[in-house]
Amino acid sequence: MTASWCVDAQTAVKQVHLVIANRGDKTLHLRVLGIAEWQLGANRADRGTLHTAYSRQRLAGQKLGALLATQRERSAGFGDGTAFLALAGATDEEDDWTCDRRECFDARGRLVLPDHLGKSQGEGLDPCAALSSRVQLVAGETLERVFLLGYAASPDAARQLATVAGAMPAAQRLARVCVSWDKLLDACTVKTPDPLFDVLVNRWLLYQTVSCRLWAKAGFYQAGGATGFRDQLQDAMALAWAQPQLLRQQIVLAASRQFVEGDVQHWWHAPLGAGVRTHFSDDLLWLAFATQHYLRASGDVALLEERVPFIEGPVIPEGAEDAYYTPSVSRHDASIYEHAALAIDRSLRVGAHGLPLMGSGDWNDGMNRVGIEGRGESVWLGWFLCQLVADFAPLARQRAELLRAQRWEDAALGWQAALTGPAWDGQWFKRAFFDDGQALGSHANPEARIDLIAQAWAVLSKVASPASQRMALAALETHLVDREAGLIKLLAPPLAQAVPSAGYIQAYPPGVRENGGQYSHAGVWALMAQAEFANSRAGSGEDRDTPYRYFTYLSPAHRASHPARGAVYGIEPYVVAGDVYSQPPYVGRGGWSWYTGAAAWLQRAAIESIFGLQQGAQELVFQPCLPSHWQRAELTLVRDQRSMRFILLRAAPEAALAAAAQATGGLPAQLLRVGERLNWPALAAQSCFVIPLPDAAEAAAPALASATPD
Questions:
Q1: What is the DSSP letter of 435?
Q2: Residue 268: phi, psi to the nearest 5?
Q3: Which of 598, 464, 588, 629 is nearest to 521 (CA)?
Q4: The pLDDT value given to residue 662
């Protein structure tokens, strides 16, 4: 017997296709059984309001039996929503089914499979869908059975969906699903000397991002199902090349969860939008950040004019960190531009040191007590806002909003002065300031003396001086990177007894998740910062090996295949983990897997930082940061019926062209230099480019010569 399964992205119907072959010489009498346990709500108690029913439809040459479960309770927004489990089979097969899960247990509560199912339906049951089919399979015969699992807004819609789904051949549905995935996952592929790099970057990282983060919004370690305002915006940013329309949709969706005051829901649940309103200081800003990323990649300025309503609801009570409720849709709406600009307007207030306010947490939710009284300041948020204003202020000027743009730019000048002044700790940048003015992330702190993201974004924001960037990255490497264990720690040493308390981060064991573990999301930012610095005038040839080394620390494939690290890792080798533990006795043990925003960021780091692809609406530019031991690497981009192959070679231009000519299959190769702009929409259906790179020694010499102290 073989089983294959897939989910049709167009209908959200899951298919399980069974093929049973009798390779013996006797007739087999078999029973095929499928069971689904219904919930149709957030809690176990929601099962008590389900109505179950059996439905039978005749299709061409077969019958379709379906068991339906309808949620009658409307308060959570799922009223009339109906799930179904259907089985397609021969017209002469006997129906055998039940909607009562209790039939599968004996009087002592042990799991059993009754000879016949009781055909129970209606209300007051332990709701499930159990469909059984008895088949006779003579020697040499092969048969197929298909189970279908789906959901619709009403019983009639569910019956109709089941009938339409049952009429499609299983092979056709699987082929359609494969075509859909191939279009997404093959839009950008690489070929390098490292097969583990290739197998992760090609298909897997984007698959993890879309299937887990954008669709399921759940994983083995977290099954919440909510949409995070900042989380899914960042995830969707990785699709700017492969499926930009998904990023656009996510931006519009996020704008619809912004309150009229400018703050946003930290997360919310569909369909009613119940969620939490917080004082988090960075959530709202990712709307502008993602919008600018989309505009740069697509040129779709029409997005800025799309109007989206706000939401309304009570403000957070005095003294509370958050408020959970279902907001209402406001009568007021605004353009996407105004939604994003309002978020920046709301984020200009500063504390005593001139830095943006921390709120109840910036990117690190666990630092919820740093600014609990409303005066704490965030160094990381200062870097982030400087970058955001540099990108977004030109849009305001283009719209003749000169005063608004000037207000943002004046604020950025103040942040920059604070970032390079009181935020500098002598060898690295501090992380934050508490309400009482004490520093977090300083050499004077016995715990959390240095924090990763404050150093990484000092580089990514391009605000810190080259000398400060070099010192910050050197401190990062010295204090946060464990080369033996292959780890990039979020902070060190872990928090345990610190007073004042940074927040619930201290409730995590030392070295776990945000409390000093390798938090993969932040580790990717460190990789990107190292590549950014290596490509700057101050970078050196040696710096260019660091991003790839960090990639191997973050990659589950490299960790799992390592002779020492693999033995202790303990989780899937093919999906990125949210964190890896950094403290004894669990050094190198994987934490949350699947459900992490690090997958999307790692995909971007591989393509944008290591391969150095900068995507524009009309132009592509390469600023690669390949490791010195890679003599050759390839990147293929597919878009709008065009396939563009880029071969990166460590050779002089003429030699690179000659070497590439032997591998292009007769397709003429053109020379494309590092930093040269390529007008990709004007290319033919098939094109090939050779990008010559200096060897490691040649790359190091000019970089060192051009590096000048401040």
A1: T
A2: -150, 160
A3: 598
A4: 75
CA distance 688 to 673: 13
The larger pLDDT score, comparing residue 408 to residue 710, is at 408
Instruction: Please state, in angstroms and rounded to a whole number, the distance separating the CA atoms of residues 534 and 204.
Output: 27
Between the alpha carbon of residue 326 and those of residues 257, 275, 284, 672, the distances in Å are 11, 6, 18, 54
Over residues 272-326, the pLDDT tens digits come to 999 999 999 999 999 999 999 999 999 999 999 999 999 999 999 999 999 999 9
Of the chain, the percentage scoring pLDDT greater than 70 comes to 97
End-to-end CA gap in the chain: 70
- Burial class (CB within 10 angstroms; exposed 0-12, middle 13-18, buried 19+) of 403: exposed
The amino acid present at 1, given as its one-letter code, is M
Q: 556-561: which pairs have CB atoms within 8 A and are 24 or more residues apart?
A: 556/200, 556/590, 556/593, 557/196, 557/197, 557/199, 557/200, 558/196, 558/486, 559/486, 559/588, 559/590, 561/196
Digit-coded pLDDT (tens) for 533-543: 999 977 677 78
Distance CA 130, CA 114 (A): 11
What does each C-alpha distance from 129 to 52, 93, 132, 597 come to in angstroms? Answer: 8, 18, 10, 35
Q: What DSSP assignment string belongs to 226-252? A: PEEHHHHHHHHHTTTTT-HHHHHHHHH
Amino acid at 159: R
Beta bridge partners of 52: 69, 122
Burial profile 170-203: b = 16 or more Cβ within 10 angstroms, e = fewer: beebbeebeeebeebbebbbbbbebebbbebbbb
Which residue in 370, 606, 677 sits closest to 506, CA to CA? 370
Q: Which DSSP string corresponds to 650-699?
A: ES-HHHHHHHHHTTSTTPPEEE--TT--EEGGGS-SEEEEEEEE--HHHH
3-class secondary-structure state, position 512? strand
The CA distances from residue 26 to 19, 22, 219, 631, in Å, are 18, 8, 44, 60
Residue 90 has pLDDT above 80, yes or no: no
Contact 367, 283 (CB under 8 A): no
Give me the helix-helix angle, 285-298 and 336-345, nearest 10°.
140
Q: What percent of the residues of the chain are helix, what percent strand, and what percent coil, each to the nearest 5? A: 35, 25, 40
User: Distances from the Cα of 137 to the Cαs of 19, 25, 81, 389, in angstroms?
Assistant: 12, 11, 38, 69
* Burial call 492-526: b when 16+ CB within 10 Å, e when fewer: bbbbeebeebbbebbebebbbbbbbbbbbbbbbbb
Alpha helices, H only, 562-678: 565-569, 598-604, 653-661
